[in-house]
Amino acid sequence: MKRLGSRWWLIAVGGLALTACTVGPNYVRPAVELPVSYKESAGWKVAEPRDQINRGNWWEIFGIPELNALEQQVTVSNQNLRAAEASYRQAQAAVQATRAGYFPTLSANTTATRNRLPTSANKNSTSGDRLSDQYVLNFDARWEADVWGKVRRSVEASEASAQASAADLASIRLSLTATLAQNYFQLRALDAQKQLLEDTVAAYRKSLELTKNRYAVGVAAKVDVVQAQTQLESVQAQAITIRVQRAQLEHAIALLVGQPPEAFSLPPAPLVASVPVAPAGLPSDLLERRPDIAAAERRVAAANARIGVAVAAFFPTLTLSGAGGFQSTNFTQWLSSPNLFWAVGPALAQVIFDGGLREAQTKEARAAYDEQVALYRQAVLTGLQEVEDNLAALRYLEAAAIPQTAAVQSAQQSVALTTNQYKAGLVSYLNVALVQAAALNIERDAVILLNNRLAASVLLIKALGGGWTQQ
Asked: How far is the C-alpha of 215 from the C-alpha of 44, rounded, in Å?
């Protein structure tokens, strides 16, 4: 009869588990309004091949070996990236911990005690104090049936959170590598400006020497010498400022690659980089190609699953527990069948009153879901804005590059013509100083423009996801 009763409970619990339901809403990705195409992509010629940045190492599109080597160091040695990777491993471990709720918990313990009973506790004893031994070996098992899907929803939430953490890791990696590329190009732009200023200083020294010689023979006025001297010292001061900015950028790059600044240096080099054109694709591609958008969407899924966890608290919990083992006062006969004991049975528990706790937790879960939906939609809008911004920047900066190149050539010709006129005594040195200053500013603007185009190209690739996909 006892065997029949235990089998009946096992059959009942098994049938209930098979027919269990999962409470709470099933997840559906929130709808977002996406345009058919980018507004700022009108007139762009799509680059060929179209998959040129879909291979992970997007920075290789610039074709700079030194940049490629630095980017590889970021992916290996950057401490923020290591922290994000550790956070992802924590999320994976949390998934394993949540899945443990599917299985029963088993425990075992054993005790061996000796009791001393005084004579007064046993009046029939004639031998004084009485000693007794007790040996117990006990096994316990407990399993809470996931009737309402609480565990399933918890696992669903933890898995979605782990996926969000993986996307966060990719997003941080993309952000760090993009920042390094921007810093690298800016450092090389400063190198180009530094070289330009040094060449200008050399030219100004020659102009100062020429003016002094003309003043010595009475051809030039003293004011010409003062103007030439002032112009030279001003450019020398600008060159020192460039050195400060370059040193700070070099330190920033050292931090990105995970090295102390004193152990890292980049020798000066010219800025020789072409501006690649990244295919923008369709706005809907951002949902698959931007890791920050993917992370936001996975957090929506996790929040949705937590609503089910909160709703499951309104329903009773079914627990099947069992215990068994051996108990004896004789050690030699301890593990024999006459000393076997066991107990098994289900328990059904229901919270009757909790002061509104479960209702408040459900409201909290639903509000958290609404929050994540809003953040997801905001991430999509931000992604669209960033793509539009950098498409516009690339288009207008490319248009500005043509007249800027012509302006540099014209400024250089103007300097040569005005200098010859000064040597011939046709104009004062003020005219030479004005055209030289203008030429220097125009040439520096050309370097800055190229750096801005490269930065916009990097930011566009970043806005498009850097070749990352959900797969």
From this structure: 57
User: Which tens digits make up the pLDDT trace of 319-339?
Assistant: 999 999 999 988 888 888 889
- Summarize the confidence of residues 431-442 as an average pLDDT: 89
Contact between residue 144 and residue 318 where contact means Cβ atoms under 8 Å apart: yes
More confident residue, 446 or 53: 446
C-beta separation of 102 from 151 below 8 A: yes
Crossing angle of helices 150-216 and 79-99, in 10° steps, is 180
Rounded to 5 degrees, φ, ψ at 324 are -165, 165
Q: What is the dihedral angle through the alpha carbons of 398, 401, 402, 408, rounded to the nearest 10 degrees?
A: 180
- 357-423 vs 291-312: helix axis angle to the nearest 10? 170
Give the pTM: 0.84
Q: Burial code of 418-444, b = ≥16 C-beta within 10 A, e = fewer? A: bbeebeeeebebeebbebbeebbebbb
Rounded CA gap, 437 and 235, in Å? 9
**Structural tokens at position 307:** 């609503």
Please name which of 120, 111, 114, 177 lies closest in space to residue 138, comparing C-alpha atoms: 111
Mean pLDDT, the chain, rounded, equals 87
* φ, ψ at 365 (rounded to 5°): -65, -40
